Every structure is written in structure tokens, then in C-alpha cells.
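Table S2 (continued). Query chain:
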Amino acid sequence: AVVIGCASTEAARKPPTPRADFIEYRQIVVQAMGQVDATMRTLDEISAQAHRDPRPAYAAFAKAVHRLEVDSVKVRARAQAMRARGDAYFEHWEAYLATVKNGQVRQLAEEHRPELKQSFEQAHLASQQVREVFRPFLSDLQKLRAVLEADPSLARIDAQKGLFLAAKDKGRQVQQGLDRILAEMNSMTATLRPPGTAAKP
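Corresponding output:
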């Protein structure tokens, strides 16, 4: 809870369970997807408004990049904590099962351990790939922000077409990686969902 930095005292009193953690990890991924998608839209809007007045579009882009910078640090810290807890579950699986009070969840976890571990490892691999491409993606965004800050004019925007295209390509790779992580997290939370329990959006 201290590493994540956002758990309540109520949550701190209760030991985390894989399903609860996987659901939280999924929420982290959805949050990251929303931020990246929003930033990509502002990037497109600069190009779309280049022949008019691109300054409002640039202002929205700069704000989105700043938010991505700040929030990516928080998301990365929380995701690392979630992965560490997930590793611990699978390393001490039998000990974990003994602590699960919900009989249905305990049975599901015991029956589907191989599938859960495989999905977790696939999500972990995809998160590493996202992390690798996210750094250059953010770097391209920061370069564009710096270049356009003083003069977000049509001529300046046209001169940076190569950087725009590079940033969009890396952004799409980040989006695809996040999609893969989300698919695995959806699979894991669905596997541990007791029959008759509604899925969360």
C-alpha cells in the first residue's frame, strides 16, 4: 500500500487478493490507455488545425504531454507494485490459497493456476514492451512541445512532419501493447470471477 501510495486505511488492513489486485492492475491499464489516447488525439488536432489557428490545439497538446509525464511516473510505480505482488502470489501459491476466504474464488484459483500464470506472464511481457517504446514516444512528444512552444505556426508544423509521424507510430505501438495487457487482465479477472457475478466495465 505504501508503494502504491493510494490505498485507504481500510484496504491496508485487508491482505490483497489476486483477483482484487488484477482488477486494480486492469484499472491502471485502462487509465494509461485513456491518457495515451487523449494525447494522440491532441497530436492529430495540431495537424488538423495547422491551416487555421493551431495555438489552441498546441496548448491542449502541451497540457496532455505534461499530464502524461506526471501520471506516467505514478502509473509505473503502481504497476511495478502490482507485478511484484503477482509474482509473490505465484511463488507462494499454496500459502496464498490458504488465506482466501471465498471458497468459490479459492477453487477457481486452484483449478486455473496454469492459465492464470500464463496470462500474468504474457501481461508482464507486454508491459515490458510498452515500457520500452513509451520512453521514445514521450521523448518525441517532448521534442515537439519544445519546438512548437514559441511558434506553433503552419510552417513550423510542416517542418516537423517527420517527428509527428514518428511520435504517432510509437504511440500506436504503445496503444497496441496496452491493448494486449488489458486482454490478459480481462482473462485473469474473468477466470477468478465466481459464477453469477457480474463483470465490471
